[in-house]
Amino acid sequence: MAQPQAQALEATGRPSIDGSELEKAKQAQHVETDAVSTFEDPVEAKKIIRKIDFRLIPLLMFLYTLTFLDRVNIGNARLWNLEKDLHMTGYDYNIVVLVFYIPYILLEIPSNIILNHVTPRYWIGFLTLGWGLSVTFAGFSKSFGGLLASRIFIGVFEAGMFPGCLFLIGSWYRRHELLTRMAWFMVSNDIAGSISGLLGAGLGSLNGLRGYSGWSWIFFVEGAVTCCAAVLAFFYLPPFPEDAQFLKPEEKEWVIRRLKLDEQRRKDNEKMTIGGVIRCIINWKILTSGVLYLAVCVTAYSLSVFQPTVLKTFGWSSLKSNLLTTPVRVVSGIISVCVGIWSDKVQRRGIFCVVGFSISIMGNLLVMLLKNGNLRYMGFYFASIGIYICQPLVIAWCTNQIVGTTKRGTLTAFAISCGQVGGIISAVVFPSKDGPQYVPGISTCIAFQAVGIMAAVNMWACAAWENRQRDMGKRDSRRQLSQDEQDKLGELHPDFRYTL
């Protein structure tokens, strides 16, 4: 039988394969299948996920800690003669805080498009070096205009960092593994907030050393550390799963296969384009992500940038005001990660989002209405805990509701762009003249959090309704489409279920 088969193959113009070669090919395929199937064992699967975790999350956490630290250190620098040295008056400080967000908002989506077409370590390493140099040179500012220019460049380079990291994380994990990783990643906010207060106190105390004020030393040291971090990003940041070299071939195949199964008919090797991004933005889930993250960031940025200033109105010194921002961020970070793990375990998002916004509203009311400094300080704990529960949650929740590289890249960039509008709002609603209660600013935070609750309830209700329709078979007509058309349905496929 082997000879006729070989003759038949030769007749078709294809090379003949003898029995031994065919058997070897079958054995190789069998070995590969066995290697992939071993990872279905929970213990083996966990090892691969941990391997990805350790390679990806700590480095991104470190980079984002520096991102946030370099963004909000202006609040600490203000307490060390910044305005006096640069002859800033009136709203000058608020303008310096605000101008950062303009390039940040405009360049986030273009940055994710670039990231989708190049190796992540090249692009993110370049961005890290760019903003690190900008922060360093900010310490040499001699005028309000010089500081303003440096803040613009910080915004230009930081624009791609946050959405790029979230885009990369979202590419590696299944939907109900995502929030835990995003919560760990965004704990960088709390690490940065904690370190910022300590560094603000420590570096600011170098005031006068070599003729530079304390605010200059804050910028010098933090900017130099960021430049060094760019080298780490360039050499060690992993690529997207399809290009991963730190995994064995069978491990990479297993990771890609489980991602496809999780997202139901995910389109492979999809690249972001301007036209694709424009089409995605009108998706109601992506629009809702923008509203939710805007609601989060008005309060998050207010706490980060203006908390030391508010604490100083309690009659506390600059040193004490900087130091006492640290415990608030530590507690909120721990609780944020715990809630993220809990949410992934029960595969629910909406209830945690609503509760988080509600806790933060209560904390803001305490800060705004009470007179006693210690009780108002307690209010900062509630405000921070609630809002930092919501920050990773809303991004993970909205990412869970979509399928495809273009939608995921558009969502992370669009949501974060909307969040930076919250940074602009926070920059203008906390003028010094409103102290010590800062009623207009805190009222603005509460109003946006109320909007966040409404958006979360809307997402929750719409997702639950659509899941019921699919459970009743009312979307099964889509199964009559061709396989290629079904592959392009994404979250519209009748097998897909939205996260509640």
TrEMBL record:
Region (Disordered): 1-29
GO cellular component: membrane
Compartment list: Membrane
Single GO molecular function: transmembrane transporter activity
Predominant cellular place of this UniProt entry's protein: membrane
Transmembrane spans: 56-74, 94-115, 122-140, 152-170, 182-203, 215-237, 281-303, 323-343, 350-370, 376-399, 411-432, 438-465
Occurrences of domain Major facilitator superfamily (MFS) profile (ranges): 56-470
Matches recorded under Pfam families: MFS_1
Protein name per Swiss-Prot or TrEMBL: Major facilitator superfamily (MFS) profile domain-containing protein
Organism expressing this protein natively: Thyridium curvatum
